[in-house]
Amino acid sequence: MPHHLFKCSETIPERKKHCVIKGKGEDLTSALPLGYLNTIPGSISERGCAYCGAKHVIGTPMKDVIHISHGPVGCTYDTWQTKRYISDDGNFQLKYTFATDVKEKHIVFGAEKLLKQNIIEAFKAHPHIKRMTIYQTCATALIGDDINAIAQEVMEELPDVDIFVCNSPGFAGPSQSGGHHKINIAWVNEKVGTVEPEITSDYVINYVGEYNIQGDQEVMLDYFKRMGIQVLSTFTGNGRYDDLRAMHRAHLNVLECARSAEYICNELRIRYGTPRLDIDGFGFKALGDSLRKVGLFFGIEDRALKIIEEETARWKPELDWYKERLRGKKVCLWPGGSKLWHWAHAIEEEMGVKVVSVYTKFGHQGDMEKGIARCGEGAMAIDDPNELEGLEALEQLKPDIIFTGKRPGEVAKKVRVPYLNAHAYHNGPWKGFEGWVRFARDIYNAVYSPIHQLSGIDISKDEFATDRGFVTQRMMSDVKLPEDLRNSPTLRRYTGAYDSVTPLRSKTYPEFPRKTATAAAE
């Protein structure tokens, strides 16, 4: 059996079925862990709740909306400003967060009056915002507050505002993925079809499952614009509330994150007949194939091919430079649901790294199937790991870097494993052709960070070199790059500027003799 039980979880034997190590010749029937099940009591999960999945992941990227949580203030604070969902309206939705601040007395006597008061106060405080989303939390769901009725009362009193209600308390699913489903279906039921848009192109799409992390969306919108495609709405990165009410008029739903937003695409297909096309904005080949598919659907493949040719010629030499220096580096791919399989094969093929582990805290069986299928022999796949299991996996696998969220990433740093933030990025955007090079650059900078290399040295007893931190400069001096690549803004900015092909080390950094701590003291 390929199942693996961590030593730290021996007292919870049920956890064994949630981890597998892919053996030689094994297919998905024997190398698939259980997934998207209720957390086993005692395993101390680090999952997000359904409320978090609805508000933090999908709702908050809408830019012209007051996002208010009906519940204790801690729920709101936990879902505020921890992802980089930038917008072009001054980042209103990131600057402000709203909560009814429910306390014990409201649990006893009800909090509907409190909710109405907060809604009206919020609109008065921000008169230029006329749209609101109300999120249900565990506390107010348990006492039965009728949020929909209160929202309707306010809309009758303030006819120029519109309010969307998302009943997604934390217990609405095994993880935050349950909240994804709740808000997808609620939006279709309550708001889609209530606004008629202006159509300006023969090719009209909804860009679904895109949240504009550090500008990802803008990269993709540029490609669509160059192809002559009108993006009617983006669900929900930098999205306008009223644009998303007009989703029913698109000719095609282009789906990026199938884990968080396939539900709304499926409903739009059933109710309005809108086709769904899954794409991938990460990786040269995957992105190129995706643009071609969209082009083929509309009969404008030639426009997509032109973009692919131009962008590949511009950025492929830089990607190859990083690939040579990242080849063989071991990676633990521990992100959310869809990046598990969006990245697994692409980073191995196009960056030269080796994926030694995949995990997800809220992904479904389908995510694991696609992720594991794109991994090689010996890869460890884990569902819903806790901190101790993560540390044990790091000790066993000894990766050079992990891609994960902030919480497990900061734990990894304590055992001297660098990480990149797979949820909010380090120096994104990472989508698009240039973005993929930027991702490779961030991996390179993390793996070869001088500070990271020096952090593992015990200067009281280890032999060390005073030039330990200059690996990057040496690597740059070991190759004579073409003139256009040496003058690349990306390389000059992030890995050192060139004035000539003279090695940097001979110009600036002399060879230092190796010293021991004893010799240095003498």
From TrEMBL:
Q: Which Pfam families match?
A: Oxidored_nitro
The main enzyme category here is: oxidoreductase
Q: Which residues form the signal peptide?
A: none
Report the catalytic activity: N2 + 8 reduced [2Fe-2S]-[ferredoxin] + 16 ATP + 16 H2O = H2 + 8 oxidized [2Fe-2S]-[ferredoxin] + 2 NH4(+) + 16 ADP + 16 phosphate + 6 H(+)
Query: What's one GO MF term for it?
Result: metal ion binding
Mind listing the UniProt keywords for this protein, alphabetically?
ATP-binding, Iron, Iron-sulfur, Metal-binding, Nitrogen fixation, Nucleotide-binding, Oxidoreductase
UniProt xrefs under InterPro entries: Nase/OxRdtase_comp1 (IPR000510), Nase_asu (IPR005974), Nase_comp1_asu (IPR010143), Nase_comp1_CS (IPR000318), Nase_Fe-Fe_asu (IPR011290)
Query: Which cofactor(s) does the record list?
Result: [8Fe-7S] cluster
| This enzyme's EC code(s) | 1.18.6.1
Task: Describe the location of the Nitrogenase/oxidoreductase component domain by residue ranges.
Answer: 49-447
The record describes its quaternary structure and partners as: Hexamer of two alpha, two beta, and two delta chains.
What family, per the record?
A: Belongs to the NifD/NifK/NifE/NifN family.
Query: Could you tell me what this protein is called?
Result: Nitrogenase protein alpha chain
Species the sequence originates in: Rhodovastum atsumiense
Tell me the lineage of the source organism.
Bacteria, Pseudomonadati, Pseudomonadota, Alphaproteobacteria, Acetobacterales
